[in-house]
Model the fold of this input.
Amino acid sequence: MSSSLWATKLVTYSHRGEVRLGAYEDDAVIDLNRAYALMLREQGKPRAEALAAALVPPSMMEFLQGEEESIRVALEAIRFVKQQAARPGGTEKLKQAGVWFLRNEVVLKAPVPNPPHLLAIGLNYRAHVEEIDRGFAQPIQTGTGEPSYPVVFTKEGAIIGPGETIRIPPVVEQPDYEGELAVVIGKPARHVTRERALDYVAGYMIFNDVSARDLQSRVSQWTMGKSPDTFSAMGPYLVLKDEVPDPQALAIRTRIGSEVLQDSSTSRMIFSVAVLIEHISQVMTLTPGTVITTGTPEGVGAGRKPPRWLRPGETIVVEVEKLGELANPIARE
Done:
């Protein structure tokens, strides 16, 4: 099934206080639930709204639980909108139906705002392991050398999306950045092999695993240092997997203004996306909407001489090839 009909970027957007599922393309946002209902009404189908609510519900999490069937009908709705928009007056009709919005009329939110699990991977790029071994500004308890198995931890706290502010709590003095590739699970995965692992993926997005190094270094468990509110930034889109045939061939970069801080490739991961899914699914079920953020390359602030912490007033930008860029301003609480 190809998702290249038109839009492959799924978003969670807000319009006049209402948060809904959409698709993004060319500075426009399509409301997928309303688009599918309109398509069914145009086709004379009964119970159009009920069918749309069941197959293309208006929230990202409910949509992902529909697995491949929901993606299929969403793509039908996108094709329909494209056809309507090409007709005279078509765009205006779509606007009146609440289907079509210009980018500046909506606010993009975290694509998967309430995942059932938010799992993160540490020490997954060789050069990042090496910079830790050379000495962090605030040493963290990791051991030395490449890990033999994936280092998996959880991130708690409030999730934010593109343009939302990373707010540094008063207790944190060493806020750091970690640009990463995140994978979103599209159907239940348990005891999955690496050969089949990518079949269980819905898509990919950018993630900034913001870290409080001073809190992280105090103990061997990283949850507190990784979980301040707003220290999990994701977006701007969930790009369907058909648009990313090889998640191990993506350029990844983190910058503040013109200052490039990280510049690497997902090809340099120690454990690939497929291996991570295989490994984690041996012990727990990865349900639709689960987010796995796959680790950061070298160049983090704690590894620099002198350390380069995030500063209020700056904007941190993470770019991943094919996925766009995620920008978040920095402020103190």
DSSP finds nine helices and 19 strands in the chain. The CA atoms of residues 37 and 48 lie 5 Å apart.
